[in-house]
Design a protein that fits this description.
Low-confidence stretches: none
Distance between the termini: 40 Å
Oligomer: single chain
Strand content: under 5%
Number of strands: 0
Largest sheet: none
């Protein structure tokens, strides 16, 4: 988990767990990433369905 968090957000788990501000920034970025992924999946599904 430590490597993934650092690779994805540039933060180590120790800093994430100790600093509320850092934790909130990471969680906001995670939410943004999740929403972007959901839009991409919806677009792909829409394109796939339109080509049937």
């Amino acid at each position: 988990m430590e490597k993934a968090m650092h690779a994805n957000y540039g933060i180590g788990y120790a800093e994430y767990s100790q600093k509320h501000e850092v934790r909130m920034e990471v969680e906001q970025q995670r939410e943004k990433d999740h929403q972007q992924s959901m839009r991409m999946v919806a677009d792909m599904n829409r394109n796939f369905t339109n080509h049937l």
